[in-house]
């Protein structure tokens, strides 16, 4: 085992700065239960997961696991799923046989327990996100082999299982919809609703009351619209549940949005942004002041991308403040303020207050009205960098939207640095995707823009799916369109020549727009032709 301290190794290899190490060590010293330095540095986004894994491997003498996660079910059942979850341990099969992958190579309690069952066990180290992803896949695989509900289940048990199953399957929303004959439950997974199960009409009111109780809503108050939230714990995950209730003609309709509090901020590369888009975004973000907008429809991951951008900007020497509704992920070194309409803390009110808090960067969760737009412009004019979102279908429409909100064209031209529009597309399951040979003659006219050259291999989803996916798809990635506000575009904005801007961006987007991104992903076998057409048109 190499004896160098972790912090010294990280500084020596240029993974962190001496100042970041000092902060990490100081935080570690004041914690009641001393947390590992590596996890503290990761918490502050000073250190990425892969760098930590590589240094831990060098320090411990273990090797880094980099293969595919082929779970050994026999070993998993023998050790017990609860232990695997608690110890962040996953038994896998590689070319040499059984190998146990862990996040912490110094967890001797776990290694001793494994060795008591498997004396010849081999161990490797991997990042926590990879281990947790493998554990989630294991849970999904086990759950597919058994029915999670039975007619004898009580309604409270069924309600709890609904949230557990949805979280385990990666659902973002649970829809509980009463109809004339029954109550249907659907999960939104990878942006698409999937039927999950039904309840009888007589169980409906009891089910609603259970969620009302969790959200602290009066049980009899079913004739009004409600927005509320509560927390739910699923295994090692802490889930923030946002409840929306509307009284439909058949009774209470509920949508539960699930936000995983334990998830970490992903980079733009991990989200799926292409290299050329990342370079453009980096250029926009490095401007000393001005507004950067991220646009797209509801549920397209705008806030997640904003967090990724903010993660690239913040450091010990920069003051970052945000106003959000809600605060989806807690960010270290960022002062995050939630919107609270009951107390009068709306976006424009909080943004105005944040300007007096000596910030360098301000994140506004959404510009949704004229007052907030005016405050965002005021912040940019006074020398701040402002990141925010708008609900528009493309990048150029953000200019129109700001003008509709009362911002003069001259202010838009002088404060707006760039706009990034994004969509989310479902990724093909790499285990069961089907290979096809496509030519411009063999595909429909509306699909030909995704075909380049005389013909090439493309992949389509297997509608039956497999144990690792749902209907041939698993996970999502980003399609992006970037608009840099250069001198030419600024002049057009000042003159109000929006139509000319649309034409100019259309020329540029031939190489960097949604269709170009989708075509690249089709050629690389990451998305299907059907998915490209569904999202891009």
Describe what you observe in this structure.
The protein has 537 residues and is of the alpha/beta class. Strand 5 and strand 6 form a beta hairpin. Helices cover 39% and strands 25% of the residues. It is built from 21 helices and 19 strands. It folds into three domains: 6-138, no CATH class; 155-260, Beta-Lactamase, CATH 3.30.450; 268-425 and 476-509, P-loop containing nucleotide triphosphate hydrolases (Rossmann fold), CATH 3.40.50. The mean pLDDT is 87. The protein has a seven-stranded mixed sheet with strand order 13-12-14-15-11-16-19, with helices on both faces. Helix 14 packs parallel to helix 15, helix 17 (409-415) packs antiparallel against helix 18 and helix 19 (498-512) runs parallel beside helix 20 (514-523). It has helices spanning 6-12, 18-30, 37-43, 49-60, 73-79, 81-87, 108-117, 128-144, 155-168, 201-214, 268-271, 275-285, 302-313, 347-354, 370-381, 397-404, 409-415, 487-494, 498-512, 514-523, 529-536; strands at residues 63-64, 89-94, 97-102, 123-125, 171-178, 182-189, 192-200, 226-234, 237-248, 251-260, 290-295, 320-324, 334-338, 361-364, 385-390, 416-428, 434-438, 456-460, 473-484.
Largest sheet: 7 strands, mixed
Main structural class: alpha/beta
What CATH architecture label of the largest domain applies?
A: 3-Layer(aba) Sandwich
How much of the residues is beta strand, in percent?
Answer: 15-25%
Compute the number of structural domains.
3
Shape: globular
CATH topology of the largest domain: Rossmann fold
**CATH class bucket of the largest domain:** Alpha Beta
* Number of helical stretches of at least 4 residues: 21
Task: Kindly report the spatial arrangement of strands forming the biggest sheet.
Answer: 13-12-14-15-11-16-19
Count all strands and give the number.
Answer: 19
């Amino acid at each position: 085992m190499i004896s160098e301290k972790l912090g010294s190794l990280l500084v020596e290899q240029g993974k962190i700065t001496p100042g970041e190490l000092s902060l990490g060590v100081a935080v570690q010293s004041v914690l009641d239960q001393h947390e590992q330095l590596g996890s503290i540095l990761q918490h502050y986004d000073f250190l990425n997961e892969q760098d930590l894994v590589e240094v831990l491997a060098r320090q411990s003498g273990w090797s880094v696991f980099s293969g595919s996660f082929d779970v050994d079910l026999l070993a998993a059942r023998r050790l017990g799923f609860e232990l695997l979850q608690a110890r962040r341990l996953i038994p896998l099969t590689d070319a040499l046989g059984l190998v146990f992958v862990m996040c912490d190579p110094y967890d001797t309690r776990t290694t001793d327990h494994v060795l008591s069952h498997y004396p010849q066990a081999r161990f490797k180290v991997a990042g926590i996100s990879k281990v947790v992803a493998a554990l989630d896949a294991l849970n999904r695989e086990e759950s597919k082999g058994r029915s999670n509900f039975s007619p004898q289940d009580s309604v409270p048990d069924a309600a709890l299982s609904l949230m557990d199953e949805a979280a385990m399957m990666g659902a973002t929303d649970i829809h509980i919809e009463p109809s004339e004959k029954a109550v249907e439950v659907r999960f939104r997974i990878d942006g698409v609703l999937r039927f999950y199960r039904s309840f009888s009409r007589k169980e409906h009111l009891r089910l609603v009351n259970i969620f009302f109780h969790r959200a602290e809503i009066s049980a009899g108050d079913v004739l009004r619209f409600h927005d509320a939230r509560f927390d739910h714990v699923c295994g090692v995950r802490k889930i923030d549940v946002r409840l929306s209730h509307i009284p439909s003609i058949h009774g209470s309709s509920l949508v539960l949005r699930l936000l995983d509090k334990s998830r970490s901020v992903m980079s733009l590369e991990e989200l799926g942004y292409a290299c050329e888009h990342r370079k453009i975004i980096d250029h926009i973000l490095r401007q000393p002041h001005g507004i950067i907008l991220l646009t797209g429809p509801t549920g397209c991951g705008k806030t997640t991308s904003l967090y990724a951008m903010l993660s690239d900007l913040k450091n010990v020497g920069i003051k970052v403040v945000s106003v959000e509704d809600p605060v989806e992920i807690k960010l270290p070194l960022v002062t995050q303020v939630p919107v609270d309409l009951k107390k009068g803390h709306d976006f424009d009110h909080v943004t105005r207050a944040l300007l007096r808090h000596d910030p360098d960067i301000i994140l506004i969760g959404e510009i949704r009205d004229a007052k907030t737009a005016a405050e965002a412009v005021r912040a940019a004019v006074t020398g701040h960098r402002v990141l925010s979102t708008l609900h528009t279908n493309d990048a150029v429409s953000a200019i129109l939207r700001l003008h509709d909100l009362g911002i003069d064209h001259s202010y838009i031209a002088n404060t707006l640095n760039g706009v990034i529009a994004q969509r989310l597309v479902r990724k093909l399951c790499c285990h069961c995707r089907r290979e096809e040979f496509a030519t411009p003659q063999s595909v429909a006219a509306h699909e030909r823009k995704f075909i380049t050259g005389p013909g090439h291999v493309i992949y389509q989803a297997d509608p039956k799916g497999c144990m690792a996916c749902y209907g041939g798809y698993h996970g999502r990635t980003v399609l992006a369109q970037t608009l840099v506000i250069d001198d030419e575009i600024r002049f057009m904005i000042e003159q109000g020549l929006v139509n000319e801007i649309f034409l100019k961006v259309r020329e540029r987007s031939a190489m960097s727009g949604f269709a170009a991104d989708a075509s690249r992903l089709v050629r690389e076998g990451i998305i299907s032709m059907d998915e490209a057409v569904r999202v891009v048109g």
